[in-house]
Write a structure and sequence with these properties.
The structure is a homodimer. The first copy, chain A, has 12 helices and 13 strands. In chain A, the strands form 3 sheets. The first copy, chain A, has a 6-stranded parallel β-sheet with strand order 2-1-3-4-5-11, sandwiched between helices. Chain A is α/β, with parallel strands linked by helices. In chain A, helix 8 runs parallel beside helix 9 and helix 10 crosses helix 11. The first copy, chain A, has 3 domains: 44 residues, lambda repressor-like DNA-binding domains (434 Repressor (Amino-terminal Domain)); 133 residues, Response regulator (Rossmann fold, 3-Layer(aba) Sandwich), CATH 3.40.50; 147 residues, Response regulator (Rossmann fold). The longest helix of chain A has 17 residues. In chain A, helix 9 links the parallel strand 6 and strand 7. At the A-B interface, helix 4, helix 5, strand 2, helix 6 and helix 7 of A face helix 4, helix 5, strand 2, helix 6 and helix 7 of B. Chain A binds a DNA duplex through helix 2 and helix 4.
Chain lengths: 353, 353
DNA sequence: CTGAAAGCGCTTACAG
DNA sequence: CTGAAAGCGCTTACAG
């Protein structure tokens, strides 16, 4: 008769029904607001629920309903850290997560998060997918073929990446942002040579930004400098490495260096500073993203702000619509960006375009 | 015979079994590595799984296994934003989440996150709890009674908060950190008056820090200044408000102002700067946490670093042990902190103790 | 308005 | 080693 162990098996709807002197169907109806239970029934149930601290099992509900009320959010794991000021994945940090989460709050959905390295992606993704009703994926996590297979099983939204026919997508207007930036550097400051330090070589975002830069520079009669020596990886360390290489080979630096993202710019400014090269006096430097530290750097960083939080909100809303079968007006949403002018371009103070 | 709609009902284990010419039991065994299926059986199953892109339903697995392989992480929603540099919940931002997530990676668990305001907490928490095997809660989300009821239903770890008998907890050694900080201000700098701007009035963390400050100051013969006028709320805006109030009432500021967290210190330094009061020349200011921007402020911020990421790792490990029934050596883990000396205390450069 | 019963998609003793 | 069947805890037609 030693019954010290607490009942590790949680309470079920049967316990509540027994306690309330009703059937499990009635308990379920009260809890879900379906049918029209008598107020006496309702009260009996609520009392029993409260007295027992009953918590309905989500797995059983999901199995019965065909709806888990969970969306998965998957980021790429930042694999190349190094600098102390470097957040793991600045673009996709809490802002996106919270944009998504804030939107999910308005429904009864919750958000399952996962960071995945490029290696084990497919396997882990499938485990995650089984626990959710739909997925929001950071671009470049898996191959196009794997993505198509996944999207055949459940709705998928690609965040900041190349749209694909099988999925929905939310991204920022890289091209407009980059063109505005280059226009500022060339037309307003008169810089004639612009270097572009890329992100990962195969990143669609980086490629789009590079293309826009080259077009705009050409149109304005400035020289765009790119190439294998100018390949970064979205990290501060990567940006610093590019500068070290260029200087090591005694290349003359262009008048302005446009970086694929803010992290890269942080590394570049750091490396230039160490070489005694003045920013923006000798070389102007710009970023992309507008991370939180951008306004605290020396000089403060001129960059292009993406509406990160809003992208998260829209990604969730798209996914939710697809899950619940609501109509989706637009499967590929492109949001406007904003040029944020601070000091690293050569301007005096903060200004916005 | 119009069959255009894609089969919105996902594939089940029965489809795989039929495709492979086996029973669902065999499919399940292969997928879970249980039993000892013949390699021919194994291959048939794997082939079918691949050809169909089958993803096992997590809800059904959970219901059958009694294990969802999901832990919930709940933060308090930052309700009092305002300053542009203010992250929503700097202490619990991606670092904790990623500490937890990184640890979860080593198992097959995933992490469900939720931000909750203080209002609707209990209801939302119960919905969340039903979807998980255990919860990691930020302190002060719900009342002690509600917490006890919740903890009776599933394992709970309290992060950065008062340990309670029903739950496990992980926190930093506030007292040691604060005492080391005060010792530096009084013994090394010779400051004789130290003001303390608190966090939320009822925050156990803030109360613990205040108590440690008072004890240490008294022991060293300095004057500690606290009280209702010195009540902040962990936000930059709150810190700025305290300064505005004090100056508005023509109080003489103490030589050093110790803030309950970094966000508060950011607001304080901002407010002092606007009044033309030099930091640290006229008033030294310190924080607590060591958020990412701390090293970018002017002056750079002297503060106490909490091992945030490690706290996340340990919180998950404790919870995982409780869920799987593994022995837990210590139900209340207190981690050491580190005094990070920068410029805002009056020192010249970065140094660590 | 309420209850008995089927069914959601898995896992796992239990036979064979 | 493999398959038939029970059972996990809910929801929801279906009767009454």
């Amino acid at each position: 008769m030693v019954e010290t162990r607490k009942p590790r098996t949680a309470l079920t709807i049967y316990d509540v029904a027994r306690h309330a002197g009703l059937s499990i169907a009635s308990v379920s109806r009260v809890l879900n607001g379906s049918g029209n239970p008598r107020s006496e029934t309702r009260e009996k149930v609520m009392l029993a629920v409260r007295e027992l601290s009953y918590i309905p099992d989500g797995a059983a509900r999901a199995l019965s309903n065909g709806l888990k009320e969970v969306v998965g959010v998957v980021f790429r794991r930042g694999d190349d850290l190094g600098f102390e000021d470097e957040a793991e994945s600045p673009l996709f940090d809490e802002v996106v997560t919270r944009g998504i989460e804030a939107s999910a709050q308005r429904t009864s959905f919750d958000v399952l998060i996962s960071m995945i390295g490029t290696g084990d992606a497919t396997a882990r993704l499938s485990g995650l997918a089984g626990k959710t009703d739909g997925l929001i994926l950071h671009d470049r996590l898996i191959s196009g073929a794997a993505l198509a297979r996944l999207a055949a099983q459940l709705p998928v939204v690609i965040l900041v990446g190349k749209p694909s026919p099988e999925t929905m997508s939310v991204r920022a207007d890289n091209q407009a942002g980059m063109r505005a930036l280059v226009r500022h550097l060339v037309a307003d400051h008169g810089y004639r040579s612009i270097g572009y330090i890329s992100g990962h070589a195969d990143s669609p975002d980086s490629l789009a930004r590079a293309a826009a830069l080259e077009i705009e520079a050409r149109d304005l009669g400035a020289r765009a400098i790119t190439g294998p020596r100018w390949t970064g990886d979205y990290s501060a360390r990567g940006g610093a490495r590019v500068i070290a290489t260029l200087l090591g080979e005694h290349h003359k630096l262009p008048r302005a260096i446009v970086c694929a993202n803010d992290q890269t710019a942080i590394g570049v400014m750091h490396a230039l500073d160490q070489q005694g090269i003045r920013v923006p006096g000798q070389v102007a430097v710009t970023g992309f993203d507008d991370v939180a530290v951008a306004r605290h750097l020396h000089p403060t960083l001129t960059t292009v702000r993406q509406p990160i939080r809003e992208m998260g909100v829209i990604a969730f809303d798209l996914l939710h619509a697809a899950i619940t079968g609501a109509p989706v007006a637009q499967r590929d949403v492109v949001l406007p960006v904003e040029l944020v002018i601070r000091e690293s371009c050569g301007c005096r103070g903060p200004r916005r375009r």
